[in-house]
Amino acid sequence: MKDLAFGPATVHARVGQTVKWTNEDSPPHNVTYVSGPKFASSGTLGTGASFTLKLTQAGTIHYFCSIHPFMKATIVVSP
Ligand SMILES: [Cu+2]
Question: In 3-state terms, what secondary structure has residue 16?
Fold first, then answer.
């Protein structure tokens, strides 16, 4: 998370891998579930805070930052 965006906006990963977000921005952000394989959304992440998610199911995950709803991104999880 940097410059009010998730980078990269689309990530390709496999089941069993872990995705990690770190807030490298000044404003707080979060990782909020939208659709696809379900996960528990993060809480608010201040500068320097991180959130990890272990991918347990194949599918396309859509998520966003509910503080900045224009921040949207996708994880494509392969089996
Ligand atoms: Cu945000």
Answer: coil
